[in-house]
Specification:
It is a single chain. The chain is mostly helical. The chain has one domain: Orthogonal Bundle (Tetracycline Repressor, domain 2), CATH 1.10.357. It is 77% helix and 0% strand. The protein has 15 helices and no strands. The relative contact order is 0.14. Keywords: Cell membrane, Membrane, Transmembrane, Transmembrane helix. It holds the Pfam family UbiA. InterPro entries: Prenyltransferase_related (IPR050475), UbiA_prenyltransferase (IPR000537), UbiA_sf (IPR044878).
Length: 294
């Protein structure tokens, strides 16, 4: 049980729940729920399994590549503390990424390509991107953007029509990644103010999507919840930009992706699925108390 717990610590289950929400939102955006044909539940399940593997594998490799840094800055983490060896963690991450790619292949070729691109983007970020102040944040955001499109790929042709929606999570995750660099030693206020502006831009873009589909009133309640969840800790971090306050803001930003995805589903006109997505929030919050988010 201790070893299983250590593996779960590496995978950050609370975050994985948010990646499932990405895929469900993408499925809603694809328009498949509006078709008269039966929903291919097998494809929905495979896409959820795919994102679990891709996100889990990417998170594991984050700690694999940070091993030397964590030995100094965060020696309590799973790998530097010796609970899981570097070799075991590498094997776990490789297996999870492979699972994500294979599961996507069982859906269609478009999902397969998106899965490969997501895994590649995650590895590039973990190995090089995170150390680049300019390219790192959008690199991490690209992983989430591709994950959203992974859900859309349930209708392959729609990926080419709706590719632009990936810009929203790229902007949002760029903001979170940017401020997360102050989690250990604190930060000045400039990146926090910039993140606040980017959060606002994200909300406006989803509002625009909802307006275009005449679903504005349905999306607004979800966006209000999202705004409250991300801005409250961010404003506290701006007032006192310590590592602890910034860490809480980052944690809230990651988990708030569930509310953002609920807003996406509502903006696409599928409020029932939007509610089901939001119901993932208490699960993610509970898991965040058991396992680290960042």
């Amino acid at each position: 049980m201790k070893r299983l717990h250590a593996y779960l610590l590496l995978m950050r289950p609370a975050n994985i729940v948010t990646s499932i929400a990405d895929v469900l939102a993408g499925i809603a955006i694809s328009g498949i729920l509006s078709l008269s044909a039966a929903i291919p539940m097998a494809d929905v399940i495979w896409l959820c399994i795919s994102t679990i593997g891709l996100y889990g594998g990417g998170i594991v490799f984050n700690d694999v590549f940070d091993f030397e840094i964590d030995k100094v800055e965060r020696p309590e983490r799973v790998i530097p503390s010796g609970r899981i060896s570097l070799k075991e963690a590498t094997g776990l991450g490789t297996g999870l990424l492979a699972m994500g790619i294979i599961a996507a292949l069982l859906v269609n070729n478009t999902a397969f390509v998106l899965a490969i691109l997501t895994a590649t983007a995650a590895l590039v970020y973990n190995r090089w991107g995170k150390h680049h102040s300019l390219l790192g944040p959008p690199n991490m955001g690209l992983c989430r953007g591709l994950n959203l499109l992974l859900g859309v790929s349930i209708l392959p042709a729609m990926v080419f029509d709706l590719w632009y929606i990936a810009i929203v999570p790229i902007i949002y995750i760029s903001a979170i990644t940017m401020i997360s660099r102050g989690e250990v030693h604190g930060s000045d206020r400039k990146p926090l103010y910039f993140a606040a502006l980017l959060y606002g831009l994200v909300i406006l873009m989803i509002l625009g999507f909802a307006w275009d589909r005449q679903k504005l009133l349905i999306a607004i309640p979800f966006l209000l919840g999202f705004a409250f969840m991300v801005y409250r800790p961010l404003l506290k971090a701006i007032q006192q930009p310590t590592g602890s306050a910034i860490g809480k803001s980052v944690k809230a930003g990651v988990i708030a992706l569930i509310l953002m995805n609920g807003a996406w589903a509502a903006a696409a006109g599928h409020w029932i699925l939007a509610v089901l997505i939001v119901l993932l929030l208490p699960i993610s919050l509970w898991l965040s108390k058991q396992f680290a988010v960042t």
